[in-house]
Amino acid sequence: MKTNELIIVQTAAADQDEAEKIATLLVSQKLAACVQMLPIQSCYRWKGKVVHDSEVLLLIKTRSDLYEELEAAILETHSYEVPEIVQVPIERGSANYLQWIVASTRKEA
User: Fold this and answer.
1) Residue 51 domain-assigned?
2) Residue 109: inside a domain, yes or no?
3) How would you write 23-80 as a 3-class SS string?
4) Which pLDDT belongs to residue 3?
5) pLDDT of 107 higher than 80
6) CATH number of the domain that 14 lies in?
7) Disulfide engineering: 33 pairs with which of 46, 55, 76, 104, CB 3.0-4.6 Å?
């Protein structure tokens, strides 16, 4: 697998419980090798108002061929009407770590 076939998907959850629920689902279904959860403060415009919220940022390590299924799983589980779900390519990384991502996610058909 080429490095450009590995990605980080980013989303933000309303709280730690929701973040853990999403992370556990993705890792248990082998849609993600790892999900890091970080407390953050967000400022955004929603329905005409500027909102400040505490959230939990999820950094999801996976393969690009699993993106659509991973996105669907997040959308089914997420409490937000319009959750952030963005894909960021992994350009370079430790060979052992990148191989671990591949080994920890669903096998290709």
Assistant:
1) yes
2) no
3) HHHHHHCCCCCEEEEEEEEEEEEECCEEEEEEEEEEEEEEEHHHHHHHHHHHHHHCCC
4) 55
5) no
6) 3.30.70.120
7) 104
